[in-house]
Amino acid sequence: MRRAVNLARRAARRLKAMLPDRPPPAGTPLALVFEEDVLPRVENVLIGPSPTRPGAISQAVAQVILDEPETRALLGGRSGGVDVPPWAHGANGVLRSRVDLVRAPDVWHAPAYGALFNDQGQVFHKAIHEALYLTPTLGLLPGVTVEGEGSDAKAIFRPPEDVPTLDRATVFMAWGGLHNYGHFLIDCLPALATAIQAGATERFPAIAPPMLPWHRELLSLMLGPQSIPQVIEAPLVRIKDAIFATAMDHFLHAPNAPLDFVRDRVLSAAAVDPGAGAKKIYVSRLGSLKRILVNEAELEAALAARGFAIVKPEALSVREQVALFHQADVIVAPAGAALANVLFCRPGAKIIELQPSNFTGVWVRNIALLAGVDWRAFFAPSPLSETEVYLEGHHRPNAEFSWRLDLEAFLTFLDDSL
């Protein structure tokens, strides 16, 4: 009998192998949508029962604009180097973006990507935007395959089996925050802070993908050790009623009021003595393979001779980084994620940012202005060399390159600034 059963199974396998492959079950095409285009704006999304699909949106924090004259008065003439961009002197003012709360019923959530999308295939842009750097086709999302080629390619979602379901949840972790200290501190934590200040997390518990120790340390400082969000191990979950704040999307470019909550909570918990610590620091990137400053060792030697302590934030705990920046009077640093800690500087402290010309950005400037910090920058022509990086066939410029600082010109600029 057993032999007969085995022979039957083998025959069935051979027959199956001879049959043509069955087409995959029909799926849902995914498409990015901007929340404001598809969601009705209401006074407060938290009032009342879950909205009808696809959800609703309401303002949590109003937009603020510093006009150009005011910004020029703060920044004008303070930056130097080669090809200083007009914004470094205050051109066009400063935007502090509005933050909205979004409430969406019956959505799928991929925690490792920040993604939220519904059964109609609408992928909410503010939640997924940072992950588009990694997967512009959406093809890396769980349950998604990219079918077709070129302009005809489509991301098709087919729900996996046995996906966990949550009744309610607050989503705050953008993809960038999983991998980058600056994005976590300046995008994700303000998104969570917005939900907390609105009272959302009392009914919609915060969730997050598996985190690293430094994520947990920052969360513990902001929330207390007993309030860490629930960790979701599954690659995909179903949420019956979800909340998220639009600060998840590159909030560091135009930071606004929720950062005050983050700053105050973290500094209070860290209990930093502002009178201790080094007063002049250089934030080293020596050894980094992404944006190599080829004469950084010479720069460090010259700064050490001027009384600067050379520090490597990645070797410090979060609490030590907060203290380091809060205690410093003068900070010199190449552009990089560690400068998110400018948020914790004392008002009036001075930050001098070194920016290669192919990697300029306003985000440190905007955080400094929000915190009352004296921001200046020195710009250097770059790159000397560049490694081409492609993700899903899309070119990612400025990801890996080398550059050189005109040391003599910078040291003159530094001495004049001090």
From TrEMBL:
Which Pfam families does the entry link to?
A: Glyco_transf_61
Q: Which UniProt keywords apply?
A: Glycoprotein, Glycosyltransferase, Transferase
Keyword Transferase listed: yes
Molecular-function GO term, any one: glycosyltransferase activity
- This protein's superkingdom? Bacteria
Which intervals hold domain Glycosyltransferase 61 catalytic? 181-352
Listed name of the protein: Capsular polysaccharide biosynthesis protein
The organism named in the record is Caulobacter segnis (strain ATCC 21756 / DSM 7131 / JCM 7823 / NBRC 15250 / LMG 17158 / TK0059) (Mycoplana segnis)
